[in-house]
Design brief:
The protein has two domains: 110 residues, Phosphorylase Kinase, domain 1; 140 residues, D-amino Acid Aminotransferase, Chain A, domain 1, CATH 3.30.470. It starts with a strand and ends in a 5-residue tail after the last helix. The longest helix has 24 residues. The protein is α+β, with helices and mostly antiparallel strands. Keywords: ATP-binding, Ligase, Nucleotide-binding, Purine biosynthesis.
Length: 306
């Protein structure tokens, strides 16, 4: 570790310590630059609500590159037409250049507008998996939305559904009904968030399908700037979405996904009790996970990741 950056033995960036006010999430370090935010995507990885002691090399750069790809699609009107977002630049700002070595930041930062964050995750599901599948097995519904009987794991839903969740400071977010969200935010804002979320998801799903990828589900975050709702945070990355290869898809069982699947499976097979600090990952698991992130990015964008 130098004064500003902390790396693990693989070279993964675990933490940043820049000379600006900071708050730290599970993956991102967010700095207040006064009129803007600087969001740094580290190589940290979390599973089962714990941050692991091992990073995934280049994960932060891949997440940033994928978010940038989608924000550029929004700017071009390919997805989410007329919906604004928070990204200003992915270049290291001058006030940061003046104080720290910028090299570890290159490719992993977003300079963004400041927004008042909406206190709900805006989740859209096109396929039945994860917490939605578990809830459906229990009561035939997801977040209060009754679904047809007889659906199998990973089945495509008759139509995409909006299933919000509360934003938890610690532990899991909690799925709630649209009515709960409306009661908290008001019908007008809740409906607008639902419509915006479904629009972006459906547009992005069509684009991804053209490139051989299925977006099973995703979560968006929104914020408010001068009375306008805008898309914030990362968008449509493997940390916030399930991506599957269309040519491998087969409902009735879990799918191979372009995310931290290797990490979850290794932890589940280990003797870790999930109530104590998690163990370091073997180098092979970290490498395979990095390769999955990279493969998802390259399939989506058609560009090699260097």
């Amino acid at each position: 570790m130098n004064d500003h950056y902390e790396f693990d033995a693989t070279g993964a960036l675990l933490s940043t310590h820049l000379p600006f006010p900071r708050r730290q999430g599970k993956v991102r370090d967010v700095y207040d630059l006064g009129d803007r935010l600087l969001i740094v995507s580290s190589d940290r990885i979390s599973a089962f609500d714990y941050i692991l002691p091992t990073g995934i090399p280049d994960k932060g750069r891949l997440l940033t590159a994928m978010s940038r790809f989608w924000f550029e699609q929004m700017d071009a009107g390919t997805i989410g037409q007329n919906i604004a977002h928070h990204l200003i630049s992915t270049e290291v700002p001058t006030e940061v250049l003046a104080q720290v070595d910028p090299e570890p930041l290159r490719g992993r930062i977003m300079v963004t507008r400041k927004a008042s964050v909406v206190p709900f995750e805006c989740v859209v599901r096109g396929y039945l998996e994860g917490s939605g599948w578990r809830e459906y097995q229990s009561n035939g519904a997801v977040c209060g939305l009754q679904l047809p009987a007889g659906l199998k794991q990973c089945d495509q839903l008759p139509e995409s559904i909006f299933t919000p969740a509360t934003k938890a400071e610690e532990g899991h977010d909690e799925n709630v009904s649209f009515e709960v969200m409306s009661g908290e935010l008001g019908q007008t804002q809740a409906t607008k968030l639902k419509d915006m979320s479904l629009t972006i998801y459906q547009d992005a799903s069509r684009l991804a399908a053209e490139r051989g990828l299925l977006i099973a589900d995703t979560k968006f975050e929104f914020g408010e700037v001068d009375g306008e709702l805008i898309l914030i945070d990362e968008v449509l990355t493997p940390d916030s979405s399930r991506f599957w290869a269309a040519d491998e898809y087969e409902s009735g069982h879990s799918q191979r996904s372009f995310d931290k699947q290797f990490v979850r499976e290794w932890l589940q097979a280990s003797d870790w009790d999930r109530n104590s600090p998690p163990p370091p990952l073997p180098e092979s698991i970290a490498r395979q996970t990095a390769e999955r992130y990279r493969e998802g990015y390259e399939r989506l964008t058609g560009q090699s990741f260097a």
